[in-house]
């Protein structure tokens, strides 16, 4: 991660807007929160008022020094100078994440959080709209979106205007919420097999010469679970993927 990462970041400075998006979260005074990128401290300041304790990590030396001075009165804040991608997340305690992140490392950040041995229970990230759509499987599912959905519920909570940021970004931005499922749809021991099934099926189709299932098996499995048949458009719902993976496990 470059020491110049702040150059690629677009800051939110409007207190009213920041308050509005934080109020879309479930953060309370009982929560420990991790913020990725302190930036100029505007978001940090309001998060401190909302949560019980905040860990805020900033890689840029200049921004860190400025934030340390600006936020010196925040008693429930630990400001950390460092690279979030190398930062050790809480090992045991429950925590949440709220951040306006550099868009260039969105994928690395989401993987770090969702793959952690002790992941956050909730994540709110300001991200590029196109990236949010890819993670949520819009307009079509991918190995990335389907893998995430096994353990996380995802939704876009807020659409920003480009003028909400300084400097103004060249892309549209949204607030993406990821909520950890109490029980994952796929057990840890089955996860790699599910990924292999999805990867193969995305490449060769769900039925056909090189597919893992027959057309009859697909039709019967969906009908048994009272799910709609596969759409002629080629769109396959997440719940259909789960159903067909279970079918594959039975017949392989």
Would you kindly provide a written description of the structure presented here, covering whatever features stand out?
- The longest helix has 14 residues, at 191-204.
- Strand 5, helix 4 and strand 6 (122-128) form a beta-alpha-beta unit.
- The protein has helices spanning 15-22, 42-50, 61-70, 106-114, 129-135, 143-149, 191-204, 215-224, 238-251; strands spanning 11-12, 32-36, 53-58, 77-81, 96-100, 122-128, 152-159, 165-166, 173-180.
- Helix 1 (15-22) packs across helix 2.
- 35% of the residues lie in helices and 19% in strands.
- By secondary structure, it is an alpha/beta fold.
Whole-number average pLDDT? 95
Compressed to H and E, one letter per element, the order equals EHEHEHEEHEHHEEEHHH
Uncertain runs are 1-7
Biggest sheet character: 7 strands, mixed
Structural class: alpha/beta
Query: C-alpha Rg, in Å?
Result: 21 Å
Distinct helical segment count? 9
Q: What gap, in angstroms, lies between the N and C termini?
A: 43 Å
| Main sheet: strand order | 4-3-2-5-6-9-7
Strand content: 15-25%
The tally of strands reads 9
Anisotropy-based shape: elongated
* Portion in helices: 25-40%
Lay out the secondary structure:
Blueprint lengths: L10 E2 L2 H8 L9 E5 L5 H9 L2 E6 L2 H10 L6 E5 L14 E5 L5 H9 L7 E7 H7 L7 H7 L2 E8 L5 E2 L6 E8 L10 H14 L10 H10 L13 H14 L1
């Amino acid at each position: 991660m470059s020491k110049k990462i702040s150059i690629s970041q677009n800051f939110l400075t409007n207190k009213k807007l920041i308050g509005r998006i934080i109020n879309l979260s479930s953060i309370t005074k009982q929560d420990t929160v991790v913020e990725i990128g302190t930036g100029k401290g505007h978001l940090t300041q309001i998060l401190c008022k909302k949560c019980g304790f905040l860990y805020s990590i900033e890689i840029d030396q200049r921004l860190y020094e400025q934030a340390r001075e600006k936020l010196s009165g925040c008693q429930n804040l630990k400001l950390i100078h460092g690279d979030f991608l190398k930062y050790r997340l809480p090992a045991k305690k429950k925590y949440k994440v709220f951040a306006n992140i550099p868009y260039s490392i969105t994928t690395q950040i989401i993987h770090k959080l969702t793959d952690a041995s002790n992941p956050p229970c909730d994540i709110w990230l300001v991200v590029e709209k196109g990236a949010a759509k890819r993670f949520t499987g819009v307009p079509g599912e991918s190995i990335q979106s389907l893998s995430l959905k096994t353990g996380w519920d995802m939704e876009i909570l807020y659409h920003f205007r480009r003028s909400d940021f300084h400097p103004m970004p060249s892309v549209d931005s949204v607030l993406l919420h990821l909520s950890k499922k109490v029980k994952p749809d796929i057990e840890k021991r089955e996860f790699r097999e599910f990924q292999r099934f999805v990867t193969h099926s995305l490449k060769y189709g769900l039925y056909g010469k090189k597919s893992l299932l027959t057309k009859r098996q697909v039709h019967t499995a969906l009908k048994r679970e009272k799910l709609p048949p596969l759409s002629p458009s080629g769109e396959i719902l997440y719940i259909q993927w789960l159903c067909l993976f279970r079918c594959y496990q039975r017949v392989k």
